[in-house]
Amino acid sequence: MKNFKRYTVTSALPYANGPVHIGHLAGVYIPADIYARYLRLRGNDVVFIGGSDEHGVPITIKARNEGVTPQDVVDKYHTIIKKSFEDLGISFDVYSRTSSKTHHKTASDFFRKLYDEGKFIEKTSEQYFDAEAGQFLADRYIKGTCPHCANEEAYGDQCEKCGTSLSPMDLINPKSTLSGNQPVLKETRHWYLPLDKHEPFLKKWILEDHKEWKANVYGQCKSWLDAGLQPRAVSRDLDWGVPVPVDGAEGKVLYVWFDAPIGYISNTIEWAEQNGKDWKKYWQDEDAKLVHFIGKDNIVFHCIIFPAMLKSHGNYILPENVPGNEFLNLEGDKISTSRNWAVWLHEYLVEFPGKQDVLRYVLAANMPETKDNDFTWKDFQARNNNELVAILGNFINRTAVLTQKYYDRKVPSLGELQPIDQETIAEMAQHKERIESSLENYRFREALKEAMNLARLGNKYLADTEPWKLIKTDEARVETIMNICIQLTANLSIVFEPFMPFTAQKIRQLLHIESLGWEKLGQMNLLAAGHLLDEPFLLFDKIEDEAIEAQVQKLEATRQSKIDSTPAVEAKELVSYDDFTKLDIRTGTILEAEKVAKTKKLLKLLVDTGIDKRTVVSGIAEYYNPEELKGKKVSILVNLAPRSIKGIESQGMILMAENADGSLSFVSSEKEVNNGSEIK
């Protein structure tokens, strides 16, 4: 394994159109902070980079909806996000923003170098333009009917009902969200990064040279590479972002996916200028190790697109690893910012004061490293009460209290070791090796479990040796036992530093010591005999049912409020009777149902329409399991023109009623009727 002189650790730049929630923390920021803190404890030269991603269409949409400027939006959320991270102990060396002058210059210079060297493709194409608003329309400024599920509120980049990725040209009856008018096609010029030309390099670099990457990351990269890469636009028509630094490019900015990762570099430059460092040693020196911490929705950008950008530039190192995580759900449901179904960090810090490390611990223990995981408030309570209080806190408190009782808080001498002492010390060394291996390989849940096992070892040692019984008959033996317990407590202050920094500081306060380096982990002479400890105090306290119930009720109130406040859908424009009679709607029965591969929302149904038996693809997999649909009576539009959905020809549409919460229900007849009966 190569020895590196310095480490560049990045965490995905949170988007500054809302606060940070626990999904962000478990997916990106907790693992990144654990790793950075671990490296620092080992004495490494580390720069841990964070910052707000402040460009892109969602920012402009939010600003427009709130009647403020995009800068107002990003200023508000940058402040909230930055303070939340600081209060949780996320130890960024720099936390800046992509609206800064340094970033604009860095991103502009990066683009210009590639442009001057002919690394882009320049293409003119037709894109939708809103004549009344006088601007080209980004995908999210266009709505229309989804060609796959007939959802009339589909966006130009995706239908949020059936989950299908779209382009604006796919939409039926597209409308501008700015004016409500139908947009027109107009020519516009843009620059593209030819990813297809980088495909051979990327295939070797990832698929051959980095087989050690996490399976979920490697697999997603392989899927993209196997499908073949296409040129990707690096500019777009928008007035919010980094202006394209080319003559004649007025009204165009760098696409946010292109400028955002350059934010890692520009933020490093800011940090270096403030601290008298040479930023290039962290980005352009082969002795530097670059590691990106991201969520799974950013894998392609950090493993394929950003490396292609860096390779095109020519002066930069490439990431050694990209330990991307999956998603964290909340109480069995997907976290949703639009539905406010989330635990927001800034709110948690107010509602659970002094419990930063409880959240850090629970999120690290539930980290979605290889598959989606779930956060529940009951588990949060159980891990606090049964692990932090009953295991870690219990051992340290018993050690402190017994030392105060028997030795006036002074560390006793270490006498002759018995086999149980030697076994305990030897097992400590094994835990050290396992924890190091787990951290080095980005298995943070495993490392945390091993750290807690060290506290379990302490509890077992105390229970097996029973110093409270021996104190009356063998005081010398008790001195040795308590010395070992104190040394073990000092080791716990080291091992929990990456995971729970506030707790580690409290342990050091109790022991009356300064921070210890990682190299001291496993040593049993960290505190000399006679060293005076502080007064005992509890590290953790129990979380009662009332506090948990309040959080559960808060979530339920959010869910109910969303349902209650959802306005009734307005009636659509009038249609003629002749238009209505063109619809041939009939009753039918579902004969077979199965999930469509590689989709979350689509089911393939075989329906007896009374006329024939036909295949229909329907976006209802979130609400119905295939097993429960056999024999289900449905209403079906049978004269809808067939469409190919995920390679399956769908011949018709099942009629569904959409509830206020977005869930779907079948529309069926009140009484038993024959298949093929017309609905009039």
What does the model show?
This protein is α+β, with helices and mostly antiparallel strands. The protein folds into four domains: 6-111 and 254-325, HUPs (Rossmann fold), CATH 3.40.50.620; 121-237, Methionyl-trna Synthetase, domain 2, CATH 2.170.220; 349-520, Orthogonal Bundle (Isoleucyl-tRNA Synthetase, Domain 1); 577-679, Nucleic acid-binding proteins (OB fold (Dihydrolipoamide Acetyltransferase, E2P)), CATH 2.40.50. The chain has 19 helices and 25 strands. Strands 16, 17, 18, 19, 22 and 25 form a six-stranded antiparallel beta sheet that branches. A four-stranded parallel beta sheet has the order 3-2-1-13, sandwiched between helices. Helix 12 (377-407) runs antiparallel to helix 16 (475-495). The chain is globular, with a radius of gyration of 30 Å. The N and C termini lie far apart (73 Å). 40% of the residues are buried. The model is unreliable at 563-570 (pLDDT under 50).
Number of domains: 4
Level of helix content? 40-55%
Number of strands: 25
CATH class of the largest domain: Alpha Beta
Dominant shape: globular
Give the helix/strand class. Answer: alpha+beta
Kindly report the average pLDDT value.
Answer: 92
Secondary-structure arrangement, i.e. CATH architecture of the largest domain:
3-Layer(aba) Sandwich
Low-confidence stretches: 563-570
> How much strand content do the residues show?
15-25%
Radius of gyration: 30 Å
Please describe the biggest sheet, giving its number of strands, its sense, and whether it closes into a barrel. 6 strands, antiparallel
| N→C terminal distance | 73 Å
> CATH topology of the largest domain, which one?
Rossmann fold
